[in-house]
Amino acid sequence: MNDIYEIIRAKQKSYILEDGKLDSNLNELEVSVPFLKRRKLENDLEESEIESNIESDIESNIETDTKTKTKTKDIKFRFVNRNRPSKNSSSGHKLNPNEKYISLESKLVNHLCPIGNYYAVRAYLSDEVMEEVKKLPNIIACDKTTEFKKPTYQMKHLNTTLLTKLHRKSRRSDKFYDLNYIKKETGWSGVSVQEYSEAHLAVISQFNYNEDLASIFDYNYYYPSTAGQGIDIYLIDEGLYVNHEEFDTYNGKRTVTCDAIIEGGTETITRDGKKKSCSYDNEYQDHGNMVASVAAGAINGVAKKANIHMIATGFTDADLTVALDFIKVHGKPHKSVINVSRNGVNTFNENLQNKIDEMINAGFIIFASAGNDAEDACDEEYPNKISGYGNIISVGATFNKENFIEGAYTAAEYSNYGKCIDIQGPGYVTAADFYECDYKANSSKICENYAYTDGTSFSSPILAGVAALIMAEHSGTQYNHKSMKKILMEMSLKNVIQDLGSEDTPNRFVNNGKHIVYSPDNNYMGCGILAGNFKCSSGCCTKKGYCVSSTSSDHKKECKIENGCQPEYGTCQKENESSSVTPQNEYGMSIELAQQSLDINSKFASVYLSD
To answer: Which residues belong to the active site?
Structure first.
C-alpha cells in the first residue's frame, strides 16, 4: 500500500483537472507527508528523493527513538484498517526494523477486505497511476470500481388498507379452511394464519388461483408458526428506520437493527441511535424500509419472527464486497440469508464473484433482484450485477395490476429475464412507509403507514423470507446455497407464469409449501387441490381441476389416470380398465398424495443434511 501511495504522490500532475487545479481528493497529502514547497513532481519515482523533515505533529507518532535522525525516505505508513481493526496491531505483521512507521487513516488508499487468499484495497488512481500500479510485483489485478444503479420505483402512499380488508371480510364464510389438513399437507409443526393479508403474501401460500374453479381469491396468508424465528436476514441496502409497527421485536424476542454503514469501502459499526435509524448518506431513504418490511415485517413480511440486520451501503461494488465481508465476520453460517436488491450492468467483475463464492462456501445464502430494465440479465460478458453472477439465487417479478390477484401469474413488464433468473415472486407489494411520520429513532410515536410499490427489489426479499421460513421450521438442517436453491425450485409452481421475457427464462413461481386453494365463500366450480379439495358429484376430476361428466366428449381423454386425472376427487379410468377410485384418508386426500406431501416436506430434515 505504501508503494501505491508513493506513486500517487509522485504523479500528482496526472490528477490536475480541466480547470488547471489539483484534484481536491489529494489534499490529504499535504497533511500526511509534506511535499516540496513548489510541489515539484518527479516523473521517475526511483530517482526522486524528498529530504524534508516530517512535521512535528506527525513525528510524535513515529515508533522509534526520538534521538534518531529520520528522513522522509525512511518512513513507511501503517494504513489503518477500519474494516478489520484486529489487523492494525503490529504483532500480527512482519515490519522491517530498519523502517519507521506512522499510522495513517487514508482516503486515497484504504483496506477493503480479504478475498480468498488475497487482499482487496481501494485506491484513488488516475489512469496514468493505474498503469504504474499494475506493474508492482505484489499486484495481481487492478480494476476500476463500478457502481450499481440507484433503484427507481413508484410509491402510492396509503393511510390504511382497512376498506379493502372490510370488503374482503364481508364476502367470507365463517370457516372455510382446515388447519389440520394444512398441517398434514405441509408437514409444518404448527400453522399460523394472517387473515385479510395483502396479495403478495396470500399468493405465495397456495397453488395458482383460477376463478373458474374457486369463486373468490383467498387473501389469507398461511405460514409455519416458527415464522423464521432464529434466522438472520441480512439486507444490503440504503438504510433502515425501526420506528414502525412492521419492525416490532415482540418484547425483545427478535432483533431489528442497522448493524453497519459502509461508504467509500469503509465500514462503520453503528452505535446508540444509529442502531435504530441509519442510512448510507445520512439522508432519509425509504427503499431499505420497504425491503425489510416484505422480508420480515410483522404485518406485511413473509418471515415475521426472523431477525432483521440492515447493512446500509453506498452503490459501488467495493461497498458491496465489504458488506459481504462484514456479514461473513459477524453472521452465522447456515442460519443467515442475504438479500441484495440493487442492480447494474458492467463487465464481469471476477473479484466480486470470488467474494460471492467465498460467502457461499462459508455457508451463506444470497438472493438478488433480477433488475427492472426489461432486458436479458444473463449476458456472460456484461451480466447484471449481481443477479447474473454465479452462486446467486436470482429473482424476477410478477404482477402488472396493482396489489390484486389480477396479473399475479403474469411477468411484470419491467422485470429482467434470462436463463440465470431462477424463480419469480410477487413484485407489487404493500410495505412500510414513513410518509407523514417521524422516522427518527427518538420519536415517541410508532408509524403505522404503508405504501404500494413495485419492482424486483421486493420480489427478492420475499424469496429470502421464504428461505428463512424453511430454515427455522427445520432448524436441525444446515442449509447452504445448493440445498436451498433445490428445495425452492422443487416447491415452486411450474409453468403458471405468462409473458416471461424469453423462452429460456425458467417458469417457476414461489410457494411456501402450502398448496390447497380455498374460496372464502366455500363456493367451488372445480375439484381437487385447486378447489378446496371439492369432489365431483359425478364424472372425473381432471389434472387441471375441472369436473368432467361421463357423457362429455372429453371424458375419454381427460379422465384417464395416465393423463393426470385425480382419483381422490372423482372417478378415473386406467388405460383399458374399468373405472376405479383410489382410497382416501379422513382429509379427502388419497393415501398416495398424502404420502407424497409428507415425503416432500421430510426432505427438509433428511436429504439436505448431508449436502
So the answer is: 237, 287, 457
